[in-house]
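Hi V.,

You were right to ask for the full record rather than a summary. Here it is.
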Amino acid sequence: MSDSLIQKYNIPGPRYTSYPTVPFWDEKPCPNDPGRQGISLDDWKKTMIRAFSESNEKEGISLYIHLPFCENLCTFCGCHKRITKRHDVEEPYLKTVLKEWDLYCDLLPQKPKIRELHLGGGTPTFFSPDHLKELIDGILKRAEKAPHYEFSFEAHPNHTNRQHLQTLYDLGFRRNSFGVQDYDLKVQKTINRIQPFENVEEVTNASREIGYTSVSHDLVFGLPFQTKESIINTIEKTKSLKPDRIAFYSYAHVPWIKGVGQRGYDENDLPKEVEKRILYETGKKMLNDLGYVEIGMDHFALPTDSLYKAVADKTLHRNFMGYTAGKTKLMIGLGMSSISDSWYSFAQNVKTVEEYQDSVNQGIIPIFRGHLLTDEDLIIREHILNIMCHFETSWNEDRLKFPELNECLDRLKEMEQDGLVILTGTGLKVPEKARPFVRNICMAFDLRLIRNKPTTRIFSMTI
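Predicted structure:
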């Protein structure tokens, strides 16, 4: 794509792991539920049970467990985490997670069937293998595995050993994801993530020896001091390990949100618009040459991986866990800061370990804010999901039409002229060359963003 198009469309915009996006959730305090905003605990329970009743037998549920502890601060990271080298925090935190799970299971009309379970963080492998086993055993005491279940976890190569991998494999995990970011030493020092290639090689090879069927590496472009040469070096090293999936993310520089970590460098240290695009195009071409197929936004997979198959089957889904190979109507988030999704509503847990443990130990599901989706929200959500997952959407059914549709299409006219979207009478498609602009295309449908034009920058840049 031309430099002029990159400059034209490189604006702040959401990544659309949800619609409405978090900044546009209802912020009104709940009159009958002090301390919560946007959704009351009763409304969250009702929508959660509704989604469960509609989908548990058919598709199962998803479970996301946030394990927030890290031994060191990676300054590029945007996750909710707690930095500590004290491992005595593990057991009380996991006991609280299992108590929260009990609170949910006590509400459900039958035993949940878990279709997807993901351990995120933080650093899940900060926890000992024995403690991770206690956690998963405790979860499965109140649940069963759905047919074709998929258990996965994120891991830091420097803090993952063979016992971690073997223990989680024995518990049913078959997919893992290792944070690599970049192999250039200057970049690693700047983001405080010094991680030799040999460490990544060791955990990747051990995963395959044990029997994991999908190994993923996370790479990031746009990091401070990153160059085309460092991207080439990183992907050449990645080539030798041939992970089944690669997440090739754009670095989101949002120091006004993430604070001290991302203030360790400034925007002058980051690749500029065109330079950053070159990093992406260079990496994308190398990955394509290696046989990877671009899946949705930021993700690449080999044709043997379940993510690729989900694209072919049109079952690819996107939620707060990113892209997943199957859709479940209900995703329950456990742990501090976790976000749950009942399709009809969102609910986020409190953001500190202390608040989280205090609420759960009082027998209270620890949400502090959320959003009840309106009928309009549900329609727009479906269009944005279609675009993000399948690079197309349509409104040939009455249920997918809404009053502002023509206004949305008018906003897409200029993108159509620029070759970024193909409009038909009843739908649209995103050409392959325009996939880097998919966030911009979704923004044309984002009625809440359009009506509430932010006066300050709240999103990362789209390109």
